[in-house]
Amino acid sequence: MARWGAANSVSTEVPKPERVPGLTNIVHVARSCALDNDGKIWCWGTGPLLRSTVRGYTTVGASAPVQIAVPAATRMDVEYALNSSRAAPAAVGCAVAVSGNVYCWGSNASGQAGDDTYDYALTPVKVKGLPGPASVVRTSTYTTCALLTTGKVYCWGDNPNGELGNGTIQDPTLVPVQVLLPE
């Protein structure tokens, strides 16, 4: 019998992969999130759960999946930065709804939720200013980007090293700006 995770033991057995029915996407950082066939997002572990504390924002863990209240989604991404230079860890999640709208929740200290505020998104907020439907969203510690169905890319949030791709550095934005891709 193989044991994984027991102190001072190493197994040479490799577990056999199993298909989990009903899941179409899974993301794992410090928080794990899964997208099911019905477009529902479920998250567990440490990361962007929708809670705050009196002394500031905190990310609260869950040992069992908790549903994130986003309209039916087709794609999702989450990011969690424990060793942040900011006052609070940056934990943000984003999803592309069936409609093509993008919704984000969690940390927004850099405007990475895209709702034209720096307010912590206790519930998923619709990204403001995307000129069309998205097909993919990716979020990092302080910046989020969406690939539109037109093939154009839009980013928002912090921009210390040119992450927005719009020709500027250290010029953040609270709403999406188009990445200047060569034609």
Walkthrough of the structure:
This protein has strands at residues 23-28, 31-36, 41-45, 52-53, 56-57, 62-68, 73-81, 90-97, 102-106, 121-126, 134-139, 143-148, 153-157, 173-178. It has a single domain (23-178), classed as Methylamine Dehydrogenase, Chain H (7 Propeller), CATH 2.130.10.30. Helix content is 0%, strand content 43%. It is mostly beta strands. The protein has a 4-stranded antiparallel sheet, with no helix packed on it. A 4-stranded antiparallel sheet has the order 7-8-9-10, with no helix packed on it. This is BNR repeat domain protein. GO terms for molecular function: guanyl-nucleotide exchange factor activity.
What does this entry show, briefly?
The protein has strands at 23-28, 31-36, 41-45, 52-53, 56-57, 62-68, 73-81, 90-97, 102-106, 121-126, 134-139, 143-148, 153-157, 173-178.
Element layout with pairings:
Blueprint lengths: L22 E6 L2 E6 L4 E5 L6 E2 L2 E2 L4 E7 L4 E9 L8 E8 L4 E5 L14 E6 L7 E6 L3 E6 L4 E5 L15 E6 L5
Antiparallel strand pairs: 1-2, 2-3, 3-6, 4-5, 7-8, 8-9, 9-10, 11-12, 12-13, 13-14
Task: Give me the number of helical elements.
Answer: 0
**Radius of gyration computed on alpha carbons:** 18 Å
CATH superfamily: Regulator of chromosome condensation 1/beta-lactamase-inhibitor protein II
Based on CA inertia axes, which overall geometry fits? Answer: globular
Low-confidence stretches: 1-12, 48-59, 82-88
Strand content: 35-45%
Name given to the CATH architecture? 7 Propeller
- Please tally the β strands and state the result: 14
Q: What's the overall average pLDDT, rounded? A: 76
Number of domains: 1
CATH topology: Methylamine Dehydrogenase, Chain H
